[in-house]
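Entry 12.
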Amino acid sequence: ATQPESLKSLLKVIDTATAQFKANVTLPFASFGMRNLMSGQFVNISSGEIRNARDFADYLAAVSDAGKMRANPTGKEWVRWMEEIQAEGFVEGCHHFGAKATLGRSRAALRTGLGAGSDFNRHVEFTNRVPMYLYLRRKGLSATEASSRVRDLQCDYGRLAPFEKSVMRRAVPFYAFTRKMGPLFLSTLAERPGGL
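Predicted 3D structure (tokens):
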């Protein structure tokens, strides 16, 4: 069924307002990004994939390599990995890594703050996803298996049912995060009630 033009216009206004609300309560604040970085790394470390000191050292090496990759995504040692990561599609906006955001001159102060916050949040998403992917690939998982596990651990915000995309995301501003973290939280409690 197609939507009448008036409904499409109303939904566009709602989507724009929701996006502006979310941007203004998250992007200008470094604490939001830092919380995401710390909680994302905690999820990776406590995932059950890192079982001993050797695994932890291997994961830290992957974190270091991901930082080098982000700093120089076209470096010859990283091109293969970046192509694989883009093909697997588990990092939103992967094509933006290494690129500088272009900001307009109007509302420069606000846009600069939001642009910097957006860049930082992309960095956080990369830092939470790519090291675990590298770690799992180096442990022998296939690209598909590793990216699937990263999606499980770090929320694939795009994998929602049509109703969730068209209704729930509009009704609840951070619905995708809550919807995706709930099952991970409950399964972690059930599988490892004592934590690490």
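Annotation: The radius of gyration is 18 Å. Helices lie at 5-26, 30-45, 53-71, 79-88, 108-138, 143-154, 162-171, 175-191.
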